[in-house]
Specification:
2 copies of one chain form a homodimer. Chain A is built from 12 helices and 15 strands. Chain A has a 7-stranded mixed sheet, sandwiched between helices. A 4-stranded antiparallel sheet of chain A has the order 11-12-15-14. A two-stranded parallel ribbon of chain A has the order 1-13. Chain A is of the alpha/beta class. In chain A, β5, α7 and β6 form a beta-alpha-beta unit. Helix content of chain A is about 35%, strand content about 15%. At the A-B interface, α3, α5, α6, α8 and α9 of A face α3, α5, α6, α8 and α9 of B.
Amino acid sequence: MALINENYFKLKAGYLFPEIGKRVREFAEKNPEKKIIRMGIGDVTLPLSPSVVKAFRDAVDEMGRKESFRGYGPEQGYAFLREAIAVNEYQNRGINIPADDIFVSDGSKCDTGNIQEIFGNENVVAICDPIYPVYADTTVMAGKTGECGPNGYFSGIVYMPCTENNNFVPDLPKEKVDLIFLCYPNNPMGTVATKKELARWVKYATDNRAIILFDAAYEAFISDPSIPRSIYEIEGAEKVAIEFRSFSKTAGFTGVRCAYTVIPSTLVAYDTQGKSHPVKPLWARRHSTKFNGVSYPVQRAAEAVYSEQGKRETKEIIAYYMENAAIMKRELAAAGFKAFGGENAPYVWAKTKNNMKSWDFFDKLLKEAGVVGTPGSGFGPSGEGYFRFSAFADRTDVIEAMGKIKALFK
Amino acid sequence: MALINENYFKLKAGYLFPEIGKRVREFAEKNPEKKIIRMGIGDVTLPLSPSVVKAFRDAVDEMGRKESFRGYGPEQGYAFLREAIAVNEYQNRGINIPADDIFVSDGSKCDTGNIQEIFGNENVVAICDPIYPVYADTTVMAGKTGECGPNGYFSGIVYMPCTENNNFVPDLPKEKVDLIFLCYPNNPMGTVATKKELARWVKYATDNRAIILFDAAYEAFISDPSIPRSIYEIEGAEKVAIEFRSFSKTAGFTGVRCAYTVIPSTLVAYDTQGKSHPVKPLWARRHSTKFNGVSYPVQRAAEAVYSEQGKRETKEIIAYYMENAAIMKRELAAAGFKAFGGENAPYVWAKTKNNMKSWDFFDKLLKEAGVVGTPGSGFGPSGEGYFRFSAFADRTDVIEAMGKIKALFK
C-alpha cells in the first residue's frame, strides 16, 4: 500500500502567495472594470536589461547551431558563471569565496527548501517570526516538526519573534538549535542586520556547532556601506554558514530562473557520533543526483549581469525600485501609518490602523482601493496586524496606490 | 549540533555519469592528440530545431520589453504549454489526460527523485536491475533503505533483475511493494514493454494499492504502433500510475531543461489508517512550495515542439538517432557482439566478450579505440558484463566508432 508522507497534512491550507492570487482573481472576475495595482507577491515589473537580453538571445542562437550546441552542462553550473559570481560578488569585495564553492540553481526558493535534505531530521530548526513561509513549510514537509499549535507555531521549530518591542531584531534562542534560517535584508520586514548582529549569530553557531542558512536574496538593495551584504563578511562565517543568493530581484529573473548557493569547503556538519564532515560534498551529491543544472542560455543571461553594461543597468533597475520604496514609506507615514524597512530593502513593513487584522486590511485595501499587498500574518503569527508593501511596481502605480491609501485612511 | 542526513553515507562513491566524465577527462589530458567519440552519457548532439530556436528567441525578446515582460509564472507551468502537451501527447492519441493533471518541471531526473518526498519512508520501493541509477540513489537519500550489501543491493529496496534469462522482462516481485519504478523504453537496455506486460503491472498495483512511477522519457523513440507510449494506454493506470516525460531527448533539451510529470486526479495513496487521499494536491503543494516554475522562454521553446513545423523537425531528429541505433546494432552484431534494444529506443545494450567486466570493457574501449560508452554495471549488478551504447551521436562518429570496435574485437 503506497503511503503518503503524512507530514504534508500538518501544513496549513494554502501557501501564502497562491492564496493571495486566488483572492485577487476572484475580485477581478467580480469587478472586471476596477483597476488592480499589484504590490503583493513581490514580483519584479521592469523588463530584462538590454545586455542580459542580448546574451540570452546569443546563447539561444548558439543552441541552434550544431558546432556551438550544448547538451547537459555541469550540474553545479558552468565555470564562466561561477567565476563571474565569485569575482564580482565576493572577491572584489574582499571576501575569499572561490568559484568552486558556488552552486548555480534555478531558484533560492528551491535551494532553501532542498538544503534540508542533506541534514538529519533530528536537527532543531530556528526561524524568525514573521518570515518567508518556505523555511517553515519545508521544515514541516521534511518531518522535522510536530503539529501546528493554536498559536500558529509548529512544535519542534524554535521561533524567534521580531516585533516593535525588540525593534524587529530577534533574540538568540534560549533553547539549543542546530539549523538557523536568517534572511537579510529581511523579507517581509525590510529590515537589515548590522555587522554586530550577524557576528552575534556567527558566534552562536560556532559555540553550538550549528549552521546558519543565510538567505541574502535581497543583498543588492543595500546602499548603506556599513551593512554587510554577505554573511561571509563576518569572521568565521565560512565555517558555519551557507549563503543563498538569487538573480530574481537583482536582475529581474523571477520568470527566467537563476540563483546560487555558496557552501564553503570549510563548512562542516556532524554525524551522530559528533565526528565532523564537510557539507559541500553532500550538497554536490544531492545536486548531481536530483538536479540537472540550469538552462545554458539562462546561465549566459546571468553572466551578462556582471558585464560593465550589465552592472550599470542593474544599478538603474535597483535605484528605480528603491525610489519606489522611499515614496511608499513617505506616503504611508503621511497617511498616518507606522512604516518600517524600505531603506536597504525593497519591502516596506507597515502597521495596520486600529489593530486591524492583516487579512481584513488586505481585503479592505483590495476592495476599496484596488491595491494588493501582503498580509503580515501570512509570514507568521508575529506578523499579525502588519502588512507588506513591495517596491517592485511601476512608479505611476506606486504613486496612484499611495494616493488611494491616503484617501482611504486619512 | 548540526547533524548530517547519514543516509548519504550509504551511497556508493560517485554517481555513474560524473565518474565516466572523470575517466574521460583524465584520458583526454594524458592523450590530447587522440580523438574521443562520446557515446556514453546519452547526451543529444543535434542542435535545437529552427522552430524551437525561433520561439525561444521571441520569448527572450518579450522579456526585454516592459509591456510583454513576465515575472513569476504558475509553478505548475503555463497553460499554453500544459494544453499543448495534453492535446498532442495524450488526447490526440485517445488518452484522457487534461492539462490540469500535467506539472511542467526542469527535468525528469529532478521529478523522479523529488516525487519520493510526498510518499512516506515506510514504503517499499521496487526497481529493475539494471536501471537508471537515480531511482535507487534518491530512495537511499530519502532514508527508505538500509546499507548497501556486498551484492550491490541496498537492503529495503526490492530489485527486479532483468537478464537474458528472463529476456530482460522483470518478474512481478514476490514481496509486497508499494512504489514501483518502471522505465520504458528502457534506459539502459533499450527494451520496450508490450501492452500485456504493462497491464500485468497495472493489475499488480491495483491489487496491492501500489503506485507505478513510470518513466517514459524515451517514448518518442517508439516506432512500433503496438508498443504503448504511455502507461495511460492501459486501462486503470490513471488510478495507480504517475508518468514522467521529458523534452530532453525528444527535442534536444538536455541543456535547455524542460520536462513534465502527469498525476491524474484519480490517483490515490493512503494514510497509515488505510484511508485514501488524492496524490495530485500533495505534489501541487510540494511544487508550489519548493519550486518556482520553468523559465518562461524555455516553456515557449517547448510549446514550439508541438507546432506543425516543430513536429516535422522533431520527427527528423528522432529518425536520425534511430538510424544511428540501427547501424550500431548491425555493426556490433557483425563484430560478434550479442546486442539488444535499439529498435524502439535510442540505446543498444551489448554483452561484452569473454565475460569481460563492464568497467574493464569501458577502459579498453576508451584507451584502445577512443570510444566512450557506459558500463552496464553502473546501472546495477545485473548489468555487469554488459555495456550501453547511446545513439545520440554524430553519424560519422557512429560509423567510425563501430569500425574501431570491429577492428578491436574481430
